[in-house]
Specification:
Elements lengths: L1 H25 L9 E2 L12 E2 H50 L2 H4 L5 H9 L1
Antiparallel strand pairs: 1-2
Amino acid sequence: MKLLKYIIFIVLLICSVLFIMKLDEQNIRQDNTKIEIQIPYITNVESGGLPVWQAIILTLSLGVFIGFIIALFQIISQKTEIISLKSSLRKSQSELENLRNKSLDDDIDLLDEDSIDVDNDI
C-alpha cells in the first residue's frame, strides 16, 4: 500500500513539473519576452520579477510550509492534552485501587437519625 502511495506521489510530481514547464513555455508576450510576476518585498521593480514557474513553486512551497507549521502546533497541543488525560486517568485508577483495597468494616460509623435529633435539642 505504501509503495502504491509513493508511486502515485511520484506520478503527480512528474505531472506537476510537466505542467509548470508547459505553462512557462506558453507565457510569452508579443515581443517574445517571458512574463514575470512582481511579488512585493521579494522582487524589485528594477530587477524585474519572477518567472511564472518560479512564482508558482514559491507560493506552493510557502503554502506547504505554513500547513506543516499549523499541523505541528495542532499535534503538539493534542499531545499535551493526551498527556494530561493520561495523568488524570492514572490518578483516578490509583484512587480507585485505594478504595477497592480499603476495609469497609473499620471506618463505618452508623448513627441513628433519632439520636442526632435528640442531641441537638438539648
